[in-house]
Amino acid sequence: MRESSLELILLGPPGAGKGTQSKLLEVRYGVAQISTGDMLRAEVKAGSPIGLEAKRVMDVGGLVSDQLIIRMIGERIAKPDCAHGFILDGFPRTVPQAEALDKLLHETKVDLDAVIELKVDEVVLVERISGRFTCAKCGAGYHDRFKQPKQPGVCDVCGGTEFIRRPDDRAETVHARLEAYRAQTAPIMPYYAAKNRLYSVDGMAEMDEVEAQIEAVLRRVGVQAP
Ligand code: AMP
User: pTM for the whole thing?
Assistant: First the structure.
């Protein structure tokens, strides 16, 4: 059993739970969680040239250019906190991105352990996504129906009282994001299946159960939590 490294991709449409699961796994396995969506939102917030370019596309639920994303991820996985691996959330999202990742990993002689698809029923996604909000101070996630703060208006984690919603979580943008997933991201599944790296878990199950299923896949491929 390998104990010191994990290279994992979580796949699935928006709202499948990739962000939630990848943050849980980051703690459990002690490797960096990388969300290209979070990285882009940080660029947008900073008003950088990348952020300005990305915002136009993100606001309408499209995909940012492969070239920009590949450069960003190349720089990110070269950072010291990825020395023991990473959990990728939201990347790759196109076949050219998957091919570019292979090339990057090949250069550093690293192999992917698994690509895990969170399978979800599309009809629930819009409800899941359009109800979510986060604490403006610490980023803790909540939901109008499924997870309200214990004390209304006060973050359970940090006590913050300001909350934000992602602009692209509006119902009309969610439909465009789902379409981008179907047209551009779903085709990477056969790509990883052909490499014997693709696994599926039931993303409709309770959060703990999804995590347990992911851990079971990781044990099967020889990765043990430290
Ligand atoms: P997410 O937080 O993963 O839902 O990403 C939010 C938005 O950022 C997406 O709807 C895309 O516009 C953009 N984005 C995030 N990751 C990628 C990627 N790997 N390739 C292209 N666009 C991306």
Answer: 0.92
